[in-house]
Amino acid sequence: TLDLTCRRTPCFAKFSEMEEMVNMEAEIDEVQPLLLSAYTLIPGVYFIGKKCEILQDMNKHLEAILKEKRDLRKRLIKHRCQESLPIEATFHRCIVELLAEAVTFIGKLESHLQSVRSIPQIPHMMNNMDTTLSKTEVLMIELEELTEQILKWEELQKEVYS
């Protein structure tokens, strides 16, 4: 199943990049000695050693990838129930309650985070509330004055009609 779902993984992308770099370096290394000296073979030996070193590094990288792949396959084949800790029957009720509380907490987590984020804004919000309270008090005083004027006008109207 793993082989069928396998896509081109980034680890092999690095391998192809390294291979391209080695090829380009090899081409450069082949042309350079010819230009510098057509009669000496020492640079060629040096570049073969360098190429061999790069191939050994790539080989180590591929071995590590294969080892990880084998470990992953082993873990996928292995049953999960063998890795879990057994819970005594007396604690089952506690675990169920704990899970319910965890679900509730996760459900309310966003609102809790929003509350925590709003803490730095509290002084500004308090100033706004103080300003609003002052405005409300002024409006209440004006409303009381207006009410008194309406009552006086109503009494005057009663006196005029009587």
From TrEMBL:
<keyword id="KW-0175">Coiled coil</keyword>
<dbReference type="InterPro" id="IPR026242">
    <property type="entry name" value="HAUS2_metazoa"/>
</dbReference>
<dbReference type="Pfam" id="PF15003">
    <property type="entry name" value="HAUS2"/>
</dbReference>
<dbReference type="GO" id="GO:0007098">
    <property type="term" value="P:centrosome cycle"/>
</dbReference>
<dbReference type="GO" id="GO:0007020">
    <property type="term" value="P:microtubule nucleation"/>
</dbReference>
<feature type="coiled-coil region">
    <location>
        <begin position="55"/>
        <end position="82"/>
    </location>
</feature>
<dbReference type="GO" id="GO:0070652">
    <property type="term" value="C:HAUS complex"/>
</dbReference>
<dbReference type="GO" id="GO:1990498">
    <property type="term" value="C:mitotic spindle microtubule"/>
</dbReference>
<dbReference type="InterPro" id="IPR028346">
    <property type="entry name" value="HAUS2"/>
</dbReference>
<dbReference type="GO" id="GO:0005813">
    <property type="term" value="C:centrosome"/>
</dbReference>
<dbReference type="GO" id="GO:0051225">
    <property type="term" value="P:spindle assembly"/>
</dbReference>
<protein>
    <submittedName>
        <fullName>HAUS2 protein</fullName>
    </submittedName>
</protein>
